[in-house]
What we know:
Layout: E1 8-9, H1 11-18, H2 22-30, E2 38-41, E3 44-48, H3 49-62
Antiparallel strand pairs: 1-3, 2-3
Amino acid sequence: MIQEQxxxxxxxxxxxxxxxxxxxxxxxxxxxxLKAPIKISSRAVAFPSHLIEEYIQSKTEATx
Length: 64
């Protein structure tokens, strides 16, 4: 079985990719519109890239 490696994206990079502020990013997580990131160390979190891609896809479908 071939496993696809998931890239992890730090919150600051997610903000740049989505063109939103960090406050908006955490608001999206809190309201459940974006799944919560995973903890990669005691003081750091990251989002699996597929979660961000799914969010972008849902937004582009909603505008059609």
